[in-house]
Automatic annotation (TrEMBL):
Parts of the chain that traverse the membrane: 6-22, 116-137, 143-164, 193-219
Residues in coiled coil: none
Tagged with keyword Protein biosynthesis: no
InterPro entries: Zn_peptidase_2
Name of the protein in question: Zinc metallopeptidase
Keywords tagged on the record: Membrane, Transmembrane, Transmembrane helix
Length: 226
């Protein structure tokens, strides 16, 4: 029992620590102004226009680090601080979200695959534990296996998210450097913000994989008992 408690503490801590790190890094460079003096909204608009994405809108969102790109209505939403602010952190986040818009315009394969997986991943996240718990209490390995399969769909979604996010960050850095929107030391600072954000996705994927493997081992044990 002690080992199981320790296990759950560890897998709970991994995403929490990653989230704390991204907030700490963001807050640090949110106090560093860009030499260009552009707001996050202006920077996003500049990159979009430079890539011919005039139809993509830049709007102000709500909440801390609520920044995202919506492929359905072609909108880059930036949290208030990033939308109005002039920081290196805001510039990095704004450019990252525009990176997703560029992926969308170029039919980036991993982005398309992730979009296609959304319904399956949502189904898996909502129902996987229902079937797993039924399988555990009823000792029906078939129900348990169905739960594992559904969970695996969610894990696949998180794995596909990794190249999507890393690629968007790479595109972001290429854009803000080539367009001269950040200079010298600002480039290193922007990379730290983007790397910290990327680690939250890595942490989530790692926890999902570990939990899936644990359930597979339990299922194997159930098969051995039959």
């Amino acid at each position: 029992m002690g080992g199981l408690i320790l296990y759950f503490i560890l897998i709970s801590l991994i995403p929490v620590l990653a989230s704390m790190n991204v907030k700490k890094t963001f807050n640090k460079y949110a106090r560093v102004a860009t030499t260009s003096g552009m707001t996050g909204a202006e920077m996003a608009r500049r990159i979009l226009d430079a890539n011919g994405l005039h139809q993509v809108k830049v709007v102000e969102g709500r909440g801390f680090l609520s920044d995202h790109y919506n492929p359905l209505n072609k909108t880059v939403a930036l949290s208030p601080d990033n939308y109005h602010g002039h920081s290196v952190a805001g510039a990095a986040v704004a450019a990252h979200e525009v990176g997703h818009a560029i992926q969308d315009s170029q039919n980036y394969s991993f982005l398309r695959f992730r979009h296609a997986l959304v319904p399956v991943a949502n189904l898996g996240s909502n129902l996987s534990w229902v079937f797993i718990m039924i399988g555990i209490f009823s000792r029906l390995s078939g129900m348990f296996l169905l739960g594992i399969v559904l969970m695996a769909a969610g894990v696949l979604f998180q794995l596909i998210t990794l190249p999507v996010e890393f690629n968007a960050s790479s595109r972001a850095m290429d854009q803000i450097v080539s367009l001269g929107l950040i200079r010298n030391e600002e480039e290193r600072h922007a990379k730290k913000v983007l790397n910290a954000a990327a680690m939250t996705y890595v942490a989530a994927a790692a926890v999902a994989i570990i939990e899936l493997l644990r359930l597979v081992l339990i299922f194997t044990g159930m098969q051995g008992e039959e």
